[in-house]
Structure formats: structure tokens, C-alpha cells
Design brief:
The complex is a heterodimer of chains A (260) and B (422).
Chain A (H helix, E strand, L loop, with lengths): L7 H11 L1 H37 L7 H11 L6 H15 L13 H12 L10 H17 L4 H17 L4 H15 L9 H21 L5 H35 L3
Helix pairs in contact in A: 1-6, 2-3, 2-4, 2-6, 3-5, 4-5, 5-10, 6-8, 7-8, 7-9, 8-9, 8-10, 9-10
Chain B lengths: L1 H5 L17 E2 L4 E4 L9 E3 L6 E2 L4 E5 L6 E3 L4 E9 L3 E9 L16 H10 L7 E3 L13 E6 L9 H5 L3 H12 L6 E6 L14 E6 L8 H8 L8 E5 H13 L6 E6 L7 E5 L5 H4 L9 E5 L6 E2 L9 E6 L9 H7 L11 H6 L6 H10 L2 H6 L7 H11 L4 H18 L1
Parallel strand pairs in B: 1-15, 10-11, 10-13, 11-12, 14-18
Antiparallel strand pairs in B: 2-8, 3-5, 4-7, 5-6, 7-8, 9-13, 14-15, 16-17, 16-18
Helix pairs in contact in B: 4-6, 12-13
Classes of the chains: A mainly alpha (260), B alpha/beta (422).
Protein name (chain A): Na+-transporting NADH:ubiquinone oxidoreductase subunit B
GO cellular component, one term (chain A): plasma membrane
Keywords (chain A): Flavoprotein, FMN, Membrane, Phosphoprotein, Translocase, Transmembrane, Transmembrane helix, Transport, Ubiquinone
Chain lengths: 260, 422
Amino acid sequence: MIRGLWTRETVALLTVAALMPLALFWIWFGGSAAVFRLALVLLVIAIWQLVFMLSRAQPPSLSLLVTALAIAMLAPEGLSVFQFVLGISFGVVIGELIFGGWGRNVVNPGTVALAFLGFGFPAAPWPVFDTPLAWAAIPAAGLGLVIGVMPSALVLAGLAVGAIVATFGLVSDPVLFAAGIVFVLLVCDPVTSAATTLGGWVQGATYGALVVLFGGAWSGAAPPQIAVAAALLSSLAAPLFDDIALRLWVHRRRRRYGRS
Amino acid sequence: MTFFRSGVGLIPEFPSPVEGKDLVDEITEEAGLRPPSDRNLHLTALVKEGEHVARGAVVACVRQDPDICLVAPIAGQVGRISRLPGRRLSEIVFFREESGGTQRHDTAVAETERGLRRLLQTAGFWPRITRRPFGGMPASREVPAAIFVMATDTRPYASDPRQALVGREAAFLRGLAALARLSKGPTFVCWDRTTTMPAVSAEAGDIRMVPCGTRHPQGSAGIRIHQDFPAGLEAPVWDVHAEDIADLGDLLETGELPMMRLVRISGAGLREGRLLRTHPGADLRQLSRRIVAPGSHSLHAGSHLDGQASRWLGHRHRQVTVLPNMPPPPRSHWLLAALIETARPRPAIPTAALGQSLGGALPAIPLIRALGAGDDEAAMDLGLLSLLEEDLALADYTLGAGGDLMRQLRAMLDRIQTEYDA
């Protein structure tokens, strides 16, 4: 009869809208170089989406805007075009498109691309974020929470852990800033983050704990690299957290009602 | 905790014109009786075309369970009996006659549990009960583990059950006490927390009041059942509308089962909304004749969310939705359509709206993923057996799935039922 609006493409567009504070600040500070970098990433992802549409009838998604923004903002600098395109292609194809596109992927394609670039080309310098850009992550997370495109438990857990880390000075400011930006761009992806409330809280706490651990023990790593590695591991553990949360939920109901 | 739960759910808004003030009773000139939605149901017609029947007279029975009868919603002549292949009864159409009379029943038999059950089955009350799991009517000897009486309905433009009960409180309590005798467990009365319900005496049995919020799907039977007494393969749960309980009270008092019910007509295809009292099987074309807007439109029995295109009002429908027929969207190029529109079902992206569309009662995304993957065991663990299509209608609407979710749920329930019956 009548259809609602929360389709995959609506969610992708609303996620882009939520990330606008971050994107606008980044373009403001980065200038034309940032715009060129973003356009290149968009072009590469669009080509791969076209390839998969033609070869596997897999409809393209506007989520490429979110992925492109994350990769353009966080990828190491000083890479050749070939290296950059190779990293983007690996992340988008292996992280998303071979699973059937956005909505069916297990890990965020941006996280996979950045991890590939970071581990594949360790000599390339990672970007350094200005303080205002890191602050822009907070309204972005707030918008995502209010609009409902970012998991509320995860965002609240992330904000709580961030506040604790900042209060007690558990990591340096650059690591904290990078962790905040990575959290909003990569960890809060609604598809690859935990789908249960308990899972969201645990994933947020795990991400924070990994950032603190890597920030203290991983000598020589750049702040974005630390944050991306924490995002990758917490994202991989999200299905496990969900499974545990669901088992607890089912167990509670069985104990109460005798069945679920 | 109750405070937080009262705010869960959504308030979907659909366009509909302002409603007229007058509340009239309307018996349509034609009425159609169709079997309740149950895939295994075979009915045997007990009347012939041209025969005259009283209102409430038995006209058909279930082939496998002949104690369960369907009755004529209006007094009149049997105009047409339609059958599907396999002599499966599809529809009985009645032409109204003023002098047809009303079928009366002996209520003395209702003193015993067996007699009450027999009375409900011969008087045509049985199709008003829905069982879970799997949906449809309960078998004639089925004893429910619990009964849910729905005195709230949160679907958009639903008629207010409390309005239907005004002046019928005594009949409601009488019917409630009687129905509670059929259950081996508690009877839950789900009511809108912003209204008041008639006080239930302790002698009526194990009756529990469940206050519900006003957002959908808090007043959805499946969600209430899932939260308070989940249905299981060996623990069927029934749900009945509160107005039907008042009708049961009247049946026990007078021997006649009232047929009229409060129905709301709404939708963007109308010039004016309407609230009226009519009977099951009412002709939707006649009910909406004077109030539809110019232009092509379609009639749906049910709400904006779960309505089905139909000519007749169903056994459990209390809403009619009239929608304008929109011109079909221009067809895209065949190659583009093949590339973009073949990947189905579309993936569901977890959002707050999706969680709210199931009332926060069960993990929305794991359930939808289990439905999409055909994982019966996971879905049963998550509470599938308490749900029917109408309970997922809001989630389906929210995702813009175009009915995919409800079809997946029905396919899975049918599969589980086949395995269970084997």
C-alpha cells in the first residue's frame, strides 16, 4: 500500500547530513586539495559500484559518499595515485561489494581501506587533525543520534568513554581527537556496528579501551592509525557482542516465561 | 521502567480528510462472507443459492472441524456461492432482506465450559478469535495458555475500542468472565493508559490489566503477547477485540450475537472521513459511496499499514482505508531495471525508527535478518511465534519494504507449521 521513507538510500543521505559538520570543517581547513582528494575517492568507488552493478546486478548506493569522506579524511598522505587507488579498491571491494553492497557487509569498507593503506604503506605519513575539526565530531555524533541513523547505545557509550579518557588524561590530545573523528566516521556505521543495545554499549567501551591500550603501548604509531586499528578490531568483535547480548536476552526470557 | 516503555513506538501520519460528526448504523444491501485467513481452512457451505437465511444463521462450517461454524452477517437471501478449485469455498454473497429475522441460541448450555465452547462455535463467534502461533482460528477443542483482550488499538485511524464499549460495560465484564473460563492460564486486558477501564471483580478469574501507551505498535496484539505471555508451539495464545467480548456478553444475556461493530473509514481517497457501526462482510463500496473523492480509488479492509484490497469487511476488520489510485510510475529502461531492481529483498539498515517500529520489544535487526535468511530457529528464539503479519506491518512500512517483510514472516510461519504438523 503505502511505503515509508527509511530505505537504504534515505539512511545513507541522512548519514551524510549528520556528518556535514565534520565534512564542512575538513573542507574549510583542507581547501582545494581536500576537495580533489574527496573527488578522487568518490570516482574510484563509483567505478567499482558500476562494475558490480553491471556484473552482478547489484544496485549502487549513496553510502559511497560516507565511505569516500572517511577515506579521504583519514587516509595516509603522500601516497602515489596508484597506491591510493589500490587501497580504496581493496577496501571497497573486499569490505563491501563482494558481500552484496551496503547493508550486507560485515566490516566498514572505509576501515578496511584505511587498515590496508596503513599496514601496506607504513612509511606514508598519517594526517594531523586541527582541534576545531575534532570538536566538529561531537555535533556530528549528536546529529546522528537525534536523526536515528547512528546506534544510540554505541554513541552514548563512545561519548561516555571519551569523557572519561579526556578527564583522566589517559591518552594524548592528538590520539583523542583522531579517535573521536574515527568513531563518528567508521565505528558508528549503523550496518557494521552492534545491532543490540547491550552490544552497542560493549562495542563503544571496547573501542575506547583499545584506543587507550594502543595509545599507551603502540610506540611509533600515528594517532589516526591507532584509532583505525581500534575501529577495525571493535567492528570485527561487534557480531560476537551481539550474539552474547541475544543469548542473554533469550536466556532471560526463557527463565521468565519458560520459552522465548 | 514503565515510564520509558510508555514512549516507545511511532505515530505514523497519513493524509485523511476531517471526519463527519454523525455516528450511524449501516447495514449494506449486499454482504460477503469469506473464510478467515488460514491457509489450511476448507469450508463446507451448508446453504444453497437462493435460500433465505436469518441474521446469525449457520451458513458454512469448517470441513476438518465441523463444530466451527460461520454465520450470516445479515438477514437475507444467499445470492452467490463462489468456489475455488478443489471445491474450496471462496465467498458467499448475501442480498439483504428486511424480514429475515435473527437466529437465537440457547444460552443455558453455556453453564459448562464445553457448552460455552459449543455456543461460541455455533453462534459464529469463533472466527473473531485469532490464535498464535501461525494465526487463523483456533481448533474447536484448543485450550489456550492465555487470552489477550485488546481494548486498545494504536493503528493509525483505528476506531477507539473504549468508544465501542460505552454503555456496554456490564456486557463486557460478563463476556470477559465467560471467555476466561476457556483458558487454562491468565486473561490479559490491554487498555489505553490514558482512559479508564471497568473494574473487574476477583471472581472473574485470573484477569490481569495491562496498560499500553498510545504509540503504535504498543496496542498491537502480537507485541503485547510477546511482552507479557509469549506464544509457543505447545502454548497457544488467543487474542480477541474488546468489542467482541461485549458482543459475547450480549450473546450470553439475550441469545443473539450482535453483528454491528464500530468501523472507521479514512484515507486520502475520501472527501470526508466517517465513523459508523456496521457488520462483518459489509460492502465497502456502499459504505464509502457518498464520501469518496472524485477519481479512481481502491478500497482496503484494514488500516493504512496492513489493509488488504477487498470488497468486503473481514471478520476482524474495524477499519476501511480508501486510497486514490496513483498512475503507475514510468517504466525504467529494461537494462537499468534488470541491473538495479533485481536484488531483493533489499537490505534493512538499522535505525532508531526501525527499533521503534517494533515497540522496542524485541531485537528488530536480528529478527529481520533471521527472516531474510530463512533462519527459523533464530527467529523462533527471538519471538517469531507470537507475531503475525499485522505486527510487522509498521516495520515493513518504515523500511519501505512494500510487504516483503510480511511475506517473509508468513512464509516462515507456514514452513514451521508444516514441520510441526508433520
